[in-house]
Specification:
With about 190 residues, the chain is an alpha+beta fold. It has 4 helices and 5 strands.
């Protein structure tokens, strides 16, 4: 009887452990395809109406200064990756980038930067960068909105500085996309 009980406990343990490993493998696979995640949390929103296209007049979006506000803890290579990822994220959303048009500048300061440690890699990594972001009309200097934009990675395949820059760029693009008309966007190849 004890032997049967022990065998049954071993089978249950194997089933649970296998399920966890399989779930992690699936998550990592999906992470490979999707890349880093980006989200935003408005503090001073663009509009009281969710997803109102108040940015329709803008035909150009520029990445302004994003600075380290945490004592130099943001890795130096982050600043090299961010512009490339920003323009890639804007292109994927089919947002206009017409030099000379009415311009909105995205600027901000890094208020949190976290890399996963050894424990994080073992139980599931969480890395993120949080930027207090301002959306600013370039011609008037008026701050139109303030919020936190977050670049986050939750899979081992997406860990690292470049992926956090990718996630942050996706957050910037998602915030603009939510308030830009869906019609009339140029097709990208």
């Amino acid at each position: 009887m004890k032997r049967q009980l022990a065998s049954m406990l071993i089978l249950v343990a194997c089933a649970v452990l296998t399920q966890g490993c399989l779930g992690r493998a699936i998550t990592e696979g999906v992470g490979t395809v999707r890349g880093a995640k980006g989200t935003y949390a408005p503090i001073k929103p663009l509009s009281q109406i969710k997803n109102e296209p108040v940015l329709a007049a803008y035909t150009n979006f520029e990445l302004g200064p994003i600075v380290d506000d945490i004592g130099g803890k943001t890795p130096a290579e982050f600043w090299g990756f961010l512009p490339k990822e920003f323009y890639k994220a804007m292109w994927k959303k089919k947002l206009p980038m017409q030099a000379g048009g009415k311009t909105l500048v995205i600027r901000g300061r890094v208020v949190h930067y976290e890399s996963a440690g050894t424990l994080g890699m073992a139980i599931g990594p969480l890395e993120e960068v949080i930027v207090r972001t301002e959306l600013v009309d370039a011609s008037t200097g008026q701050v139109l909105a303030v919020g936190n934009c977050i670049g986050r990675t939750e899979e081992t395949v997406n860990s690292g500085v470049e992926k956090k820059a990718e996630g942050l760029a996706k957050a910037f693009a998602a915030w603009i996309d939510a308030h830009y008309p869906k019609t009339g966007r140029e097709e990208t190849e």
